[in-house]
Amino acid sequence: MKGINPIVHAFSLDIEDWYQSSFDFNAPVNEVCVHNTRLVLDFLLQYNVKGTFFIQGLVAKAFPYLVKEVHSRGHEVQSHGYSHRPINNMTPGEFKEELEETGKRLEDITGEPVTGFRAPDFSIDKESFWAFEVMYECGIRYDSSIFPLKTSRYGIAGFTRGYSIIKTLAGEIEELPVSVLDMTWFCGFRVPVGGGGYFRLFPSWFLNYGLRKLGSQGEPFIIYCHPYDFNPREWQRILKRVPWHRRLHQGLGRRRFQEKVAELLKRGTFGSMSEVLQRIHEETSQDKTSS
Ligand SMILES: [Zn+2]
Questions:
Q1: N or C terminus: fewer CB in 10 A for the chain?
Q2: Is residue 2 assigned to a domain?
Q3: Domain ranges, residue 94
């Protein structure tokens, strides 16, 4: 993909309750995720950014007013599944039920169709590609669930970096993964720079380099964050509930997270996932016209 001008990058947020989504799927969702999401809404207002909020169905059920608030403040509302259980542990029927339940709740609140999806913990792997057909049948037209790099927990090694189209028997789904960098000067390693724990791990200069590098290649930078990333005190609050071996990993680098995102938002033009796709469609139709 070349020459999209001006480049629009995407800011996206997966709205979930940290403890329920990461440690106990049967735990109730806590109102602190409302507080944390409002921190992000106020943060984005400072930079005049309207992003995409992938909202978990359980959160929409518990706090429908939060979905309304996100939507009325001009952000795009899309689906993050219902229970946060991994897709690659579900049957197609279970996944369909989750998608329909979440889609209906979000659509009832916003009055707009749900057409975008991000899987909990990027849990679509090569064995669970059936999920794309289910998505299409449920009205989903774009997805951001594939992590284009294999880690110990998720991801698909060598998957297309940036935009691609996934064909299913039901129809096509546009795939827009979170950003990774191909480090040709560093043994050809692929490095994740799109958000979450990687924002906590990497210094600001490296993330800014990633934004510049992808931008220079005409590729949008796709950020993903969680509401609790914007509340450095939350990890201390629930520290005692987190297994000891995950405390260091969960606590590392939380204080500077917000500053790092702010640096990126100041350096680029950020919008929603749909805006990025719109630019790609415009670019594609220009290419067709000129060829
Ligand atoms: Zn999630």
A1: C
A2: no
A3: 9-290
Ligand 1 center to 16 CA (angstroms): 6
Instruction: Answer whether residue 3 is part of any domain.
Output: no
> Which residue reads 């670019």 in tokens?
283
* pLDDT tens for each residue of 208-249: 999 999 999 889 999 999 998 888 777 666 666 666 655 555
**Ligand 1: centre distance to CA 87 (Å):** 12
User: For position 167, which CATH number holds?
Assistant: 3.20.20.370
Q: What single-letter amino acid sits at 234?
A: E
Does residue 266 form part of some domain?
Answer: yes
pTM for this model (two decimals):
0.91
Closest CA to 250 of 260, 240, 239, 261: 239
5 alpha carbon to ligand 1 midpoint, in Å?
31
Name the residues around ion ligand 1, CB cutoff 5 A: 14, 16, 120
Residue 278 pLDDT > 90: yes
Number of structural domains (the chain) is: 1
Assess if residue 198 is contained within a domain.
Answer: yes
Sign of CA pseudo-dihedral 82, 223, 39, 74: negative
Q: What average pLDDT score do residues 131-156 get?
A: 93
What is the CA(285)–ligand 1 centre distance, in A? 34
CA of 119 to the centre of ligand 1 (A): 7
Query: How far is ligand 1, taken at its centre, from the CA of residue 230, in Å?
Result: 15
